[in-house]
Structures are given as C-alpha cells and as structure tokens.
Amino acid sequence: MHFCFIVEEQYRRDSMPLVIARQLLKWGHAVDLLEPSKTVTSLCDLTGQCCDAYVLKTVSEGPGLSILQAAEAVGIPTINNSRAIRLVRDKAIFAAFAYAHGLPVPRSYFIAHPRLLKSIPRNDYPLVVKPTNGSSGRGIYRVNSPGELATLKIDGPSLCFFLAQHYVENAGYDIKLYAIGKDVYAVARKSPLHPEVEVESHLIPVKSEWLKLAQRVGELFGLDIYGLDVLETNNGPVVVDINDFPSFGQVPGAVKRISNYILRLAKDAKFKRYRLPDRGTFHTVRAQRLVMAR
Q1: Distance CA 213, CA 228 (A)
Q2: Inter-residue contact 166 to 121 (CB < 8 Å)
Q3: Phi, psi at residue 47, to the nearest 5°?
Q4: What is the CATH number assigned to the segment(s) 107-167?
C-alpha cells in the first residue's frame, strides 16, 4: 500500500509519527514524507497520486491540516480525519463539544486575554488556565483566587486565546489514556500542577470506566488514534484535554500496534473509496520518498 505522512516541522525530529512510517516501509509499503513548510503540492493532481491514505500529526493551525483536508475533499482516506482534529486541536472547541455531549469535563470559560479572568464568578475558583492552542503541558497555570490576578503573569504562544477551567480535586497526578481504535492503555504521569507529587510515568491497569470513557470519546469526536488527559476524582474520571496522535509513551509495542491499525483502516477504506476521474499526475516539489537508513 502507499501512504503519505504529512510531517509538520515541529515533529520532524520527534520519534512519532516517523517511527510508524519506517515500520510500514519495513513491511514493504510505499511511504512518502510531505513537509508542508518545504513542499509545493499540486492540489489539482491529488487524485493521480493513487495514495491509499494520508496520515497527519499536526500542530495547532499548522499548514498540514489544509493538505489533509484537500486530500479528504478528493476522496482520499485520512488518519485522523480533519473534523476530528479540528474538534480537539482548539481546547475551547473541545470543551464546548464535550460538555454538550455529556462528557465529564470541568466548567470551562473562553477568554481572549488573561485580564478577563476577573469576570469569572468567584465560586468557579480555583481555575486552571491554559492556551487554547497549547500542547505538551506547556503554559498551564493554577489561579487559586481572584486576589492572585494582580500579580499573575500568564504567557502563551504569540497568537493565542485562553481556556479557564474550574480546578477539580484529584489524586495529584495525571492519567493519560492512549487509544488505538477500541484498544485503550493507561499511563500515570506527573502533573504540571502538582510538582510536589513524585510520580514516574508508568503503565497502569485500565479501569472499566476509563475504557468506556475513552471509547465514548473516540465515537463522539470521530478519532482513530488519540489520547485523553484524565483526572481521577471522588466523582469519577474527568477529561481535561484530548489530543490527536499523541506520543504513546510507555505503551508496549505501540509502533507495531499503531502501524497495524493504520494498515487495517487503509485497507478497509480502499474497498469503499470513491475514485474521481484521473485528471493528471500528482507531483510535489521536494516531496520525499522515505527510505530506510542503512
């Protein structure tokens, strides 16, 4: 089969998703790497490429999502699909969509600037404040009371808005649920809000309620490969973030599991794919065919 991995510049040196691309290549499949910041893509010739699937691990507002959507528009399968990615890449959209569909999420507010925190009702404090386009646990702050606002300095990406969520009491460490289709794995991780709690990242048993929650998220958001940041509370698990194509750190055999799942999705889609008339030959400038290092 023939795959195209869209690799944003930020992830060019990260292991994920390139390890998946190399595994598929090792199994004898054709794999192209498309770097949006270095590639000119002929949008008129996408259908002539005969690619079985596009795979994307994107950054917020990254150019790769436009290419993924273009591939979808002409009938090429994508992993994950662009709608699902957009629902989770903006944390404000994630929170609104999750709350509207009955998922356990903290009470959340969208603010364009940290100075607007003073307008949030006092009984919703403490607050956890984070950029709506943030990632990897960066730029997360806890604000215990309105009185702290006068001295608080909140930074984020150069262009960003903010999500403010009611802080929920929890065990002091994060639970990352990694999902590959219906299969779910749980990892305990150190919380950026509780540096005093010493926790080494390690695999833990998946509780039945976590499994149901993760699978419900996949169904609602339309995700195939994804992760949830969950807090364990006295009232059960609470979802504080969802992301597409996470690192899958600590998950045993993650590379082969994900590679096999992508293959299965692509093969299933191949039989259902609606093929448009051939209008030419796909070509890119500086697109790369991935080759195994010798």
Answers
A1: 9
A2: no
A3: -70, -20
A4: 3.30.1490.20
- Alpha helical stretches, state H, the chain: 18-26, 64-73, 82-89, 91-100, 208-221, 254-272
| pLDDT at residue number 5 | 95
pTM over 0.90: no
Residue 47's pLDDT is 79
Half-sphere exposure of 104 (CA within 13 A, CB side): 18
Cis peptide before 17 (omega within 30 of 0): yes
Residue 261 CB neighbours (<10 A): 18
- Domain 2-80+252-289 sits in CATH at 3.40.50
3-state secondary structure (DSSP) of residue 36 = coil
Where do the structural domains in the chain lie, given as residue ranges?
A: 2-80+252-289, 107-167
Residues of the chain with pLDDT under 50: 275-277, 279-286, 293-294
pLDDT at 286: 42
> Cα 95–232–193 angle (5° rounding)?
75
Residues 184-208: pLDDT tens digits?
Answer: 999 999 998 998 898 899 999 999 9
